[in-house]
Amino acid sequence: MSLLKLPQRAGFRFSFVDSFLWAVRIGALVFIVVGIFGTPGIPGGPVGSLAKTLSGEGVSGEAWRGLVVTGLAQGSMYGMIALGYSMVYGVLGFINFAHGEVFMSGALVSFFVADSFGSSGFWDSQPVLALGLTMLVAMTTSTIVAVLTERIAYRPLRGAPRLIPLITSIGMSFFLQYTFRGLFGGGFKAFPQAPEALQGRATIFGVEILKTQLAVIVVAAVSMVVLYQFVSRTRMGRAMRAIAEDREIAALMGVNVNRVISLTFAVGGAMAGIAGVLWALLFRQVYFLTGFLPGIKAFTAAVVGGIGNMAGAYLGGLSLGLVESIGPLLVLDGWGIPAVSQLKDVVAFSALVLVLIYRPTGLLGERLAVEERG
Amino acid sequence: MATTTVAVSPAFDARAAAKIGLLGGLGYVFTSSIGMVEGLGEKNVIDPVLSLGYTILIAIGLWAGHRGAAVGLSADRGSVGGRILAGGMAGVTGGLLASGYLIWINTFVVRDVFTSISPTLIDLLNLQQGLGTGIVVAIGAGAALGMAGAGIGLLAPLMRRALLGSFLWVLIVGFLEVVMSQILRELDLGVVLAFVIVGVAAWILMRNFADRRHVLFGGLLGALVGGVFIARAFSEVNLGLRFIPDFAYVARVGGRALTLPAAAIVFVVAFAITVLFEGRRRALRERITALEPAERQRWAYGLVAAFIGVGVFLPMILGSVLNELLSTTGLFLLMALGLNIVIGYAGLLDLGYVAFFAVGAYTMAILTSTSVRGISLELTFWEALPFVILAAVIAGILVGTPVIGMRGDYLAIVTLGFGEIARILFLSEWFTPVTGGALGVTKIPSIELGFYTVAGTDTQGILYMVLAFVAIAALISWRLYDSRIGRSWMAMREDEQVAETMGVNIVKAKLLAFVMGAILAAVGGALFAVKFGTIFPASFSIIVSITVLVVIIVGGMGSIPGVAVGALVMIGVLGGRNSPGLLREFSEFKLLIYGAILLYMMLKRPEGLLPSKQRSRELHQAEALQDVWLRGEIEEEEEA
Amino acid sequence: MALLETIQVHKEFGGVNAISALDFHIEEGEIVSVIGPNGAGKTTFFNLITGMQPPDSGEIVFEGENIVGLTPDVLTRRGIARTFQNVRLFANMTVLENVMVAQHCRTRKGAFSAIFATAAFRREEEEIRERAADVLSFFGTRLIGYRFDQPAFMLSYANRRRLEIARAMGTQPRLLLLDEPTAGMNPRETRELTGLIGRIRDEKGITVVVIEHEMKVVRDVSDRVVVLDHGVQIAEGTYEEVTSDEGVIEAYLGRPAGRNE
Questions:
Q1: What is the pTM of this model?
Q2: What sign for the dihedral angle of Cα B51, B56, B60, B63?
């Protein structure tokens, strides 16, 4: 489908909304292109940041590559969290706002394990085992939280008007945040530094990158592949997809709907748990609100990638990570906006709006964000 | 335990009762572990005997006994002993779980991980003695409370209501210490006289001129103005009621608490009133349900008049703390009325609603402030207000248009994104020359009324301003609801596509909802700016949007009285963002309680406390059908 | 001049023709039935006329003007109203409110006059209410009195169908599209409704297109019958002409053995 397909309903009659959206589409495109390349013909016009780099004045190529890697690492984590949103949306059709807190719970609880490993020296002497155990704890915690959430709050609401589970999940989100604050305190927890084996930089394809970032990207990719195999090869995975297609028919075909839905939450939770440890390794601090913004971003990623689509969630995560990492410098800096790095969230959310305007199905999605007409 | 169960009755479901007991035990563990028991342990409700923390634990025990008896003994409802035993069993089970927890926290030092499990908490749970006492108390009190809870279930409904109601009144009077003391201390002859005069005038006018609205409203207005003058004239004559709070409350570490004799008096009085006036209450209710629509309309007018009277005279006796509290509540109510139009009427879940509030606040600030020279036009409040509304309209259209075609949940996340975009932009260095970045805009001037200047620090004046705007907003909401526009919103909420084929222009209807909501929020923001004199981006976080959402959900989406009740309960009692409510002790747990209330409401009472008719129909179609069937108004399918 | 005319209208869904090369017309004051087996494209035909779906090609001319690309609300204002095969009422609004909403496009008082409750606004509200009550009284005593304030979901199935027709009539249409109005009704209710369709035309002067499966209804109401099969018009004419047409019988019963190609 072409990105610039004329809106079908309009015929030759352009409505107010259509013209507005076209103005936004074109305006955004112009803004982005000028931001990147500048207006070379016009003296005194904006000079694109990429143009600056090419002429050797602006940010170095090295710095750009660094931003790309950072974006990919960040995006990998978004992708892993996005999976939980995407799968739940596929199966139950609502946004599970509390998924960010599922992610946070894994990160927060794994802190205590990692902290004790860190102080006992186990962290550095057996890095793989220590990290594996930490992740196991995080996965277990997140899975339990996710499954319990579903059991307590969402299961009684099946079949309710669609905004009700959404609002419930907002309530759950706050309840979990402040429960965890009550249990473990409200302060930042300083995660131990990555094991020695993961400190410093490595050079890959001539690009120097932080080993932790590399580890994040690799672990995320491996988990995604494993999960993909699980969903496409196993019986449970098939049942999951069947329910996403049509819950009632699936139930009639003998699929145990409750069990599969629990499993969906469990799998989403486990992925979020791994992402939690990766997040903690990279940013080295966690607290009870850690899940909030990444949660919203990950949902954004799921929408960008095409909700209900697993590969889409991962791709959406990577794209969003890249956009918010290089976007501010690439587009905004060219316009002479100061301190662009403050605006990375603005870029991310604008990307969400633009994706939904340009291509409501997301990059790989089939389901429509726009109400299907007729 | 299994042997006991069989002995009592074959219908005794011990497992069900024990399960409830375990839930109760979990409640004990949960509230203790997140620090609630300790955090609220300081606040005494009744002076030496009862702290808020213990109240919560006791309530859990009673609940477990009550529920345990109900589920544990389904077939054998008649047996008093059986029920008490079932309740006791639930209590003991909970107590056992609690004991396990006590042993754990007494034996190990778990504070490094679970920060709330402090020595103070352990002492509280052990009643300041050792672990042994703690265990004995947990199990013993569990059993006693369980049996008591079961016993409450056995009482006659009237007695049960009287008992629980009176206890609730004791708690309320305990909590309302600030309000009670303030009002009783300050109460002066003027306000009382004014109340009486306006009340009598309203009564006479309602009886004689109910059908002539101009006379009615003119008369009421005259009475109000007269009342204000009288209130002012006699405002120095204190009624000398301060001995009541002095007797009833005693100062303690965690705030003032009710004394034991005062608590007893409140309990006895409330109990007596409930029991003695039961017959009259019922008669009154029957009379109200039997009223003709026109008559009911008149009563509704009367209620509105009463609210206006309260609104006019209450700020005079509340004192600055409570006025402040009420203005915060009013600001949230203003926003909630706006969001109610967007969500409750039109069904558009806007989670970035705070953006409009921020736009209003910043527009007002930037246009009037004397601190951003060169940019500010240094207008007055009234000159800037039209621009605030204009900015709201533009913002409403800018946010509304891209999301016109989007489905509910996408709309939620996109609007949430817009809200964050607005906040970050206001905070950013890019906008700093205009918005002052993190430091915000300062020196926002007072409101000039011509005869009076309402400064931000003048809590009473601000409260009057807020109340006036709330009244306007309520009027707007009410008029719109019952109009062509309101019906088109309702239709759109029910089925967008059909609404469109019935001639509703969806684009216009949605944009109008966004714009109306935006205007109310922006006016709220403008008042907010004046009230504090300074605004920072930090005041406009997503929590505000969520808080407003909670207000309308708790109150009842789509219902104006519901939203007002929601604002009073949530903001007035629990407190809004950065502003403590009446229960200041709960501030720490405010958001936890918000979350829990949202969950509870969605699961058990999604239509809210005071729902709109349409909404409760929607959520309880089956019950509504049954009602009508019982009234004989439903038809049988016609035969061939 | 025909009230409504479609010229070579095409619509396909994922490569399957729902409507192809359809030429349809209806004169002012006519009652035309559209019949055809399941999946013949009848409801799609309605969706195209009411603007709920755009045709891929072709023209739809209403009162001499091409209306392709206009939104449903505009078409309702121009005078096209419809009902739905699976009754779609505003279930939680009252009976009266359902019909009051339908007058949205016939009234114009906006937010301002509502907020200030101007005299004109109150007059208009009163008119809306009266007209709604008037439309509902068209159905005898079934939808009036205490029913005014009952939410729509409380109605019996037959009354829901009636209310949906009332709601469509509330838009004051010139052309009314009824999608299987008697589906699910018992014989007596069906007879009654058959008479009602005639009255809609005779008393209110509304032109009617009916999608109908019940052949007795088709016989009794139609001036003309159009038969669709797989999106193609295979026959047109009076009830008698159409029911004796071989192509029509084939479409319904399948091709007789031996003539299979």
A1: 0.89
A2: positive
What is the predicted pLDDT for the residue at B567?
92
B394 touches chain A (CB under 8 A): no
Q: Closest Cα of chain C to B491: distance in Å?
A: 6
Nearby residues of B273 by Cβ (< 8 Å), 6 or more positions away:
none
pLDDT at residue B77 in the model: 56
Using DSSP's 3-state secondary structure scheme, residue C196 falls into helix
The pair phi, psi for residue B441, each rounded to 5°, is -110, 130
Q: For residue B176, what are the CA distances in angstroms to B53, B248, B325?
A: 17, 12, 13
Cα→Cα distances C132→A201, A251, B155, B170, B509, Å = 76, 44, 52, 53, 21
Contact status, residue B330 vs residue B466, Cβ threshold 8 Å: yes
Task: Give the range among A57-71, A218-232, C59-73 with minimum mean pLDDT.
Answer: A57-71
Judged by a CB distance cut-off of 8 A, whether residue C114 touches chain B is: yes
Phi, psi for B496 (deg, rounded to 5): -60, -45
Nearest partner of B602 among A362, A124, A164, judged by Cα = A164
**Per-residue model confidence (pLDDT) at position B78:** 57
C97, B475: Cβ pair inside 8 Å? no
What is the C-alpha to C-alpha distance for residues A124 and A111, in angstroms, rounded to an integer? 16
Element (H, E) at A190: strand A189-190
Taking the CA of residue B209 and the nearest CA in chain C, the distance in Å comes to 21
Q: Which residues lie across from C7 on neighbouring strands? A: C59
Strands C65-66 and C57-62 come out as antiparallel
CA B177/CA A321 separation, integer angstroms: 53
First-to-last alpha carbon distance for chain A, in angstroms, is 20
CA separation for the pair C206, C199 (Å, rounded): 9
Q: Give per-10-residue mean pLDDT for chain C (261 aa).
A: 88 84 90 87 90 90 89 91 91 90 87 86 91 89 80 87 93 93 88 91 92 89 90 88 84 59 40
The Cα A27–Cα A99 span in angstroms is 34
Nearest CA-CA partner of A106 in A291, A321, A264: A291
| Rounded distance between C-alpha atoms, residue B535 and residue B366, angstroms | 10
Residue C91: both structure tokens together: 């279930």
Residue C144, Cβ neighbours under 10 Å: how many? 16
Helical H runs in B252-292? Answer: 260-276, 278-289
Nearest to A136 by CA among A110, A158, A162, A112: A110
Which residue of B116, B402, B606 is in closest CB contact with A183? Answer: B116
Top-confidence residue, A275 or B129: A275
For residue C62, CA distances in Å to B610, C5, C45, C197 come to 48, 6, 14, 21
- The verdict on a CB contact (< 8 Å) between C156 and B512 is no
Q: Is residue C17 helix, strand or coil?
A: strand
- pLDDT tens by residue, B512-550: 999 999 999 999 999 999 999 889 888 888 888 988 998
CA distance B500 to C84: 13
C190 touches chain B (CB under 8 A): no
DSSP H/E element including C57: strand C57-62
With beta carbons under 8 A apart, name residues in chain C contacting A10: 69
User: Can you say how many angstroms the Cα of residue A303 is from the centroid of all Cα atoms in its chain?
Assistant: 9
Per-10-residue mean pLDDT for chain B, 640 residues long?
A: 45 81 93 88 78 88 88 65 86 92 90 87 87 90 90 84 89 82 84 86 79 80 87 83 85 78 90 86 80 74 77 82 89 94 92 93 90 77 94 94 81 89 88 83 86 85 92 92 92 91 91 95 94 89 89 88 90 77 78 89 84 72 68 52
Cα distance from B582 to chain A (closest Cα, Å)? 21
- Report the alpha-carbon distance of residue B566 to residue B587 in Å, rounded: 17
Strand pairing category for C207-211 and C31-35: parallel
